[in-house]
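Ticket #4471: structure export looks truncated?
Reporter: QA, pipeline team
Priority: medium

Steps to reproduce: submit the single chain below to the structure queue and open the exported record.
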Amino acid sequence: MDGKTVRGARRADGIQVHPLAAMPGTGRVTARHEVGGKTNGITVFRPMLAPLDLTDVVVTFDALHSQTAYARFLV
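Actual output as written to the record:
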C-alpha cells in the first residue's frame, strides 16, 4: 500500500488529489481509494482492503499504517 499526492492535480474545491493504492508485486493496482482533503490514509485503510482476499498475502505499508489495530484486522 502506498499513497501519493498527485502533483499539480486539484479538485474543483482546490484540494489536492491524494490516492491510496494497493498493489501486488506485479505493480498492477488492485484497489484504489482517494483520501479526503482533511484526513489521511488511516481513514481508508480498512475500507480499501476489506473486500480483498488477503489469505496468505504479505501486506506492506509505510509507518503511518503501523498500528496494532491494523495488524489485528489483517490477521
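Status: closed, not a bug. The export was complete when the record was re-opened. Leaving a note from the reviewer for reference: The chain is about 15% helix and 15% strand.
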